[in-house]
Amino acid sequence: MNLPSPIQSIFFENKQFYLKRDDLIHADFSGNKARKFHYFLTHSFPHINKVVSYGSAQSNAMYSLSVLAKMKGWVFEYYVDHVADYLQENPHGNYRAALQNGMVLRPAQKTVAELVEGKPDILFIEEGGRQQEAVYGIKILAQEIIAWQRENNIEKLNIFLPSGTGTTALFLQKSLLTLNAQRSTLVYTTPCVGNKAYLKEQFLMLEEDKVFHPTILCLEKKHHFGKLYRENYEIWLKLQQQTGVLFDLLYDPLGWRTLLVYPEVYSKPTLYIHQGGVLGNESMLRRYVRKYPSVMSE
Ligand SMILES: *Cc1c(COP(=O)(O)O)cnc(C)c1O
């Protein structure tokens, strides 16, 4: 793994940002899923021979688990609700890549956690990698950021990253506060999957003490995860044109749109975390090109 991941300076909409390139950690094992599963990759589990998880058929966590299982020689069983006909007939993106890594698909069950209970040879991973072991890799991310701040004399820093389960943002804020007691590096995030109340609940499930919770920022308009928005497509294209960096299409467009309306955050040195996920772009991009054929050439 390419650690510490590089940090570069970028300009977007005439503003300067630092960008933490966690998308470059590893060709197959990238972004915040590499951080979340770092613990499993670097420890040995002689009694485990199978990893079981559940979630959507296009998830980045699903793909990363298929890579982890392959590296470890484990069977990977994944419980999925629904595989769209189009995806089944034209496998692509995370779905195809995970199947190529040997993923075994199972129809969704309400009780996946119970199914695997008391089976010592099975490693069970919550949807999206929301589990305590994630703290191991995310603490390393915090250490990398603190070392970079020291080298570059950046005392006061704002960090921004978009959230799904909120696991990465929460453990990052907690690690920074624990490693660096003065409250000078704040983590800001926005909920991409649910609303603000949902994200707060997610934080509370992982950490009861609100002192360690990141600050949640939102756009005024409601946003639905996975839905196509012209504004998201446009800012994603703009990001690529202005920074030369390929971002993910599910989380980053909302992340950047939110950050750009909070000058009180970005007027201080701000580090945006690129959390990978670009393999998942394939399916979103197909849908965007079909829906907005004129946008690309405008
Ligand atoms: C999984 C993922 C997220 C969400 O991470 P959480 O820790 O669940 O908040 C954000 N961006 C990308 C690219 C992801 O793959």
UniProtKB/TrEMBL annotation:
It comes from the Bacteria. Its cofactor is pyridoxal 5'-phosphate. The modification N6-(pyridoxal phosphate)lysine is found at residue 33. One of its GO terms (molecular function) is D-cysteine desulfhydrase activity. The active site is at residue 59. InterPro entries: ACCD_DCysDesulf, TrpB-like_PALP_sf. Keywords: Pyridoxal phosphate. Belongs to the ACC deaminase/D-cysteine desulfhydrase family. This is 1-aminocyclopropane-1-carboxylate deaminase/D-cysteine desulfhydrase. It comes from Sulfurovum indicum.
